[in-house]
Design brief:
6 helices; alpha+beta; 3 domains; DNA Polymerase III, Chain A, domain 2; about 375 residues; single chain; nine-stranded antiparallel sheet
Length: about 375
């Protein structure tokens, strides 16, 4: 294989593709870029870690068609350090790889293209179009509530409900739940012309990588579904990932429908108070919770915590809509994560009792409405 690339063109393809390169060191082929140079002057570039992958292509000058797998970290670092201009990549029959530009010259080893794993079939008859900026906004609002390596698979992803008039996204890790919905027109790309009615769970790790590629633009991305995979089409890039094949929890039973206590306050004020409390919090010691943030609600909201590091006390002005006084404790990080995802402005906090947690809602929100529910900590008197 012999091909000549423009440095900037090649980098623009390799950098996003790097997001789905395996880092587990279990199969050298999944740790590399699969380059397949065709006589038509196209190089197809693929990555795949057996869970998610990317496909794209770049124009190049192909002197000899062929394919190979080059370690992704090495190739990307080499291309970054090469001088600007044409970069020639040559692979001989022993899979010695020469990368050269100007007077710069690298010799490395690569693998035959045949050792790259076979990608799954990605033929899909179901899909929809969605603005990139909204997808980015919604995922950022629920990402904090996705579990990390939880033994319950559904907690490790975000749940989507899509039809032509509405989108719902939910994430829950067992301690907090994030919910967002928006009534909007969604363009169906179902091949058979049927109406959209999709339900699927995307792993949180995949969403983290997708966020690196979507832009704050009204330009739309195409999202397609197969039985086991979700496929994102962003320009020349195709990113795909396994979905989580499981029934999602009944989130409607978790979100309280009635409340004994309701109040409103300034979002930034509460966020700042929790950030101050987090400076001295000892979250865990020998596996048990040693300190927490305590809310005492009467005429004001008192936020306090104490640990071996010191004490913190804050008071926040509130507008109590209804209810009695209450004292309730929370894991500070869980609550602060939810507050960081909230829009600035006024928010509403809803309680029932010290054992049932808090429902957080914005007083006003554009681009959809969202709710966060955070479970409390049982406090010892």
């Amino acid at each position: 294989m012999i091909a000549v690339f423009e440095k900037e063109t090649l980098l623009n393809a390799l950098i996003p593709a790097m997001y789905t390169v395996s880092g587990k060191n279990t199969n050298p082929a999944t740790e590399g870029f699969h380059l397949n140079c065709l006589e038509e002057g196209i190089c197809k570039i693929q990555t795949y870690d057996n869970e998610k992958g990317t496909r794209t292509s770049v124009e190049c000058e192909v002197e000899k068609a062929g394919s190979c797998v080059i370690n992704a970290q090495k190739l990307l670092q080499i291309i970054k350090t090469m001088p600007n201009g044409p970069i020639k990549i040559s692979v001989d029959s022993s899979y010695k790889t020469v990368i050269e530009s100007g007077l710069s010259h690298f010799d490395i080893k690569c693998l035959p293209g045949s050792e790259f794993p076979v990608l799954p079939e990605l033929n899909s008859d179901r899909g929809f179009m969605f603005p990139q900026y909204l997808f980015k906004k919604y995922i950022n609002k629920v990402l904090f509530a996705i579990g990390q390596n939880d033994t319950r698979p559904v907690f490790n992803g975000a749940y989507f409900e899509i039809n032509e008039e509405q989108i719902i996204v939910v994430a829950c890790d067992g301690n907090r739940l994030a919910y967002i919905e928006n009534d909007m027109s969604i363009e169906s790309k179902n091949i058979d012309g049927t109406r959209l009615n999709l339900r699927f769970i995307i792993p949180g790790k995949t969403l983290v990588e997708i966020l690196k590629m979507v832009k704050d633009t009204e330009e739309e991305m195409e999202i397609r579904l197969t039985r086991k995979y979700v496929i994102f089409k962003l320009g020349k890039f195709v990113i795909f990932s396994k979905t989580i094949d499981s029934e999602y929890i009944d989130y409607t039973r978790i979100l309280p429908k009635t409340h004994n206590i309701e109040l409103t306050l300034n979002t930034a004020d509460l966020r700042s108070a929790l950030e101050r409390s987090s400076l001295i919090i000892e979250d865990r010691l020998a596996g048990s919770i040693r300190s927490f943030v305590k809310f005492t609600i009467d005429e004001v909201l008192s936020v306090s915590t104490q640990s071996s590091n010191g004490n913190v006390y804050d008071e926040i002005d509130i507008n109590k809509i209804k209810g009695d006084d209450i004292t309730i404790g929370f894991n500070c990080k869980f609550l602060l994560d939810a507050l960081k995802a909230c829009d600035d402005g006024e928010m509403k906090l809803c309680f029932n009792n010290p054992l049932m947690g808090v429902l957080i809602e914005p007083s006003e929100s554009k681009d959809g409405k969202y709710k966060y529910f955070v479970m409390p900590i049982r406090m010892n008197n």
